[in-house]
Structure formats: structure tokens, C-alpha cells
């Protein structure tokens, strides 16, 4: 069953039921070694899934749960190995969405849920996106409208000496550092081959995605339509939007406000991806550290080949 969370839609199953978990991997076409996040609705449920929980986990949970933060902890013995991809650790998160919370509470256990997309593809931020990719494969999609955050949760590993971010996401690095009262580093994805979000190519539309800066895009837009190409554009600079409008090109404009940008990014990419374009050109977002989660997704989505 697919359900909304504040980050992206999830494909949920009983986290204690091995057969149900296997169904998730089958539907997504995801390698079985890639672990799933267990979603809980109450802090007291954390003990059902993790052991040797450090004090820092509670500090982060109190500050950011419910919310877009996943904690990697040592797994409790009862956690099925299908959930953890055979690892000794488990990812746990409490989502900040009334439908997700009600669902988990009504179910009464942990809900294992990856993003409700096919492996390697764009995550869904609307029920229609789930329907497009997984319709016919899932028994139910609960429509909770568009996701408020629009990017996946930030994943923090608390099983090594110092907390490390494995995937930047809905909670910013600066908010984490403030709470931990220490700088927090972005882990090297290569250290964690089993974090599927750390694969080089991931979160991709089917249409080739190309990241370009303002002046490169200005050139490309100038020659577009003379070059027998049918390209689409995701742009934020006024000058480019004006040009693309004059030339009647296939484009979407995106806000430069960070929260609005991340909320609409996947949605706009899904809509361009449906237009049978040769390529989608996307204007590079600002390079500052606040944009690290967006930059991470765009980098992965624009890689040419999947590296596993
Ligand atoms: O925002 C989100 O986190 C969404 C919503 C549905 O909660 N879920 C999501 O799940 O993005 P998924 O499976 O698409 O991505 C979860 C990431 C994967 O890269 C997975 O490998 C990593 O979390 N992960 C899960 N458990 C882990 C563990 N024990 N150690 C390291 N990485 C883990
Ligand atoms: Mg995913």
C-alpha cells in the first residue's frame, strides 16, 4: 500500500512480516541488500526496533520527530534481515504527516517503507506519481495531496563514533549541528554501498537530465528549435524564463526560495518527464551549503549510468 508522508510517498508493509517485505522489493525491482526505513508513530516504539540507543538519538528525535529525519541505530534482534538488508543496523523515522501517523497508529506496529517509485527512478510527491509508476502493482494508493517537504528524509548514522549524515534531506545540516552542538559531516557515500540513495545514478527521470549554468542555458535556449531537438527546461532566472516564454519552449519555472524549490522539484521533473522530450536541461541551483540536499539529488539524477 502506498501512503503520503511529508517527504515523499512511501510504499508500506508490516516491518515484522518477511513475506510483506519481500513484496516491496518485488514491486520496486530493488536489490534485496538495500535496507528499508521503519516508520513509527510513537517514540516509545523506538525500543522495538533498536538497541543500545545513544542519548544523542533521543536528543535528535525530540527536536526533529515527527519529521524528515531517519536515524540509523543498532538493530534489535527481532528485526527481520529483509528490512535491514542483512546489516546489523536499522533506519527508523517518525513521519510528520497526519495520514501516515494515523495509518501507523491504526496498524499498531512498525511500517517499513521505501519511496513508492521503481528502483532508481524519481520519487513520488503526489498520489498520481505513484499511480504512474506503480499503478496495477499496488493494492492501494492513499491520496494525501502533494508532499509538503518534497525531498526524502535526512539520514544520520548514529552507530559510529561521531554522527554522520549518509543522505542530506529534509532536515538541514545546520539544524543538525545546532542541536548536536558540533559540526556534522557528510559521510562519503562509498563507505555505505548499501544506502541505495548513495548510488551514483538515482532519483532519475527517464528523460536524460543535464545540469547547466545560466550562460550555458542562455546559449542553448537561443538555438533551441533550430537544432531539431525537442528539449525541456527547468529554470529559475528571470532572463531565461523570459526567453523560453518568447520562444514558446517546453519549460517549467521553479522558485529560488529553498523550501518552495525542494517541495516542487520532483513534481516539475515528473511533469517534464511525461512530455517525450529529448533532454531536460536544468539550471544549476545556488551553490551554497543550504542547497546541499537539492544539489545531491540533481547530481545523481543527471548521472549517465547506474553504478551498483
Ligand atoms: O523520506 C524518506 O526517507 C522516505 C519516506 C517514505 O519515509 N523513504 C525513503 O526510503 O526515502 P528509501 O528506501 O527510498 O530510501 C531510504 C534510504 C536508502 O538509501 C537505504 O539504503 C537507507 O535509507 N537505509 C535504510 N536503512 C539503512 C541502514 N540500516 N543503514 C544504512 N542505510 C539505510
Ligand atoms: Mg527511494
| Count of helical regions | 11
| Euclidean distance between termini CA atoms | 27 Å
Unreliable sequence segments: none
Bound molecules: threonylcarbamoyladenylate, magnesium ion
Chain-averaged pLDDT: 93
Query: Could you describe the largest sheet, including whether it forms a barrel?
Result: 9 strands, mixed
SSE order in H/E notation?
Answer: EEEHEHEHEHEHEHEEHEEHEHEHEH
What overall geometry do the principal axes of the alpha carbons give?
Answer: globular
How much helical structure, as a percent, in the residues?
A: 25-40%
What Rg do the Cα atoms give?
20 Å
Assign the structural class, choosing from mainly alpha, mainly beta, alpha/beta, alpha+beta, or little secondary structure: alpha/beta
User: What's the number of extended β-strand segments?
Assistant: 15
Beta-strand content: 15-25%
